[in-house]
User: What shape does this take?
Amino acid sequence: MHPKTRIHADPSLQIDQFDRLPDSLLLLILNKLADVISLGRCAAVSKRFNSLVPLVHDIYIKIDRVVTVDGSDPDETPNTPSPKPRNMFTNFLKMFLSVIKPFHHIRSNTSAARGPPFPRLSSQHSAAQVLRNFTQVRNLHIELPSGDVGTEDGVLLKWRAEFGCTLQNCVILGGTRIDKKSSLSLDQENANLNSNLNSVQEDNGTMPESFYTNGGLKLRVVWTISSLIAASTRHYLLRQIIKDHPTLVSLVLTDADAQGTLIMGLNQLKEVRENQLTCSASSNRTQVPACNMKLRYAPYLELPGGVGLQGATLVAIKPSCEGSGSGNGSKKETDSFVMGAFDGVFKTAVKALMKRRSYLLEMNGF
Assistant: This one.
């Protein structure tokens, strides 16, 4: 009798092929992931992941909850309606931003190995606290749960601001109503088009007299001031993050409503680290310097995709003082910032409005 044949497992099948990937390749994969919650879960997978996650360069943080100073949570009262606040700067001053912290054991290799395969997502922490787990952050994108400026339904308001230690550029695109052609009757559509043509023939791009008498100019001033306060408040909230992460080269702060975007590049971040921010005396936000504003207006714009924009307004804002540092760029640089501020149909709207006559306004710092 022959002895029983022994079956030997293939040694190559016992090797985890994933372990053969170099750390540099794993970091590329983790950088593509970016989302801070997902990165926290990856950190709990193994000792190796736990040591690599803090070295990620690209981070995306989605703020999913607003907690007021008194500790109350708006989400704890589901039966009470919670409309978007109309006074956005009051809202900002009475809250701090929080995210769910998935990094209980990111600093401990042993606990990462022994801990649960899926980290508990329970405690709330600020974005600055979560980012302290990362040591090599270069590109940071933070998204707020909603826009800061409350508007009526159908109203368009979008802004984009560039900051160093103070405001350098800001562009605001607004409209009293944005509609789809499919939602308009044929008579309404023709009326809008005729109104647009008559307006162009009548004023050749000049501001109609009704713009001053029916509150149109006042509404645009409110949009402008509200957007600048929202931008300067966001900028103030970022100061600790900028200080804690000298490796940052790009910082973007947006919101889920795609209303406002604050951007800072390498030179702007360096400027913040080297200079002290000038804060507003009345609130926790960066002071807005005296500015020159160029306002352009069109009663109606027909945009691609069947989109119509009524009361279309474009406001380009630039600090007027010579001491505003790198904020004083050339007209070509400013126009480039304005033209590249928005995408899609909104980019088309900006392009159309840039051909309109501009009106210069001045605003004191506040």
Notes: The first strand starts at residue 58 and ends at 62. The chain has 13 helices and 13 strands.
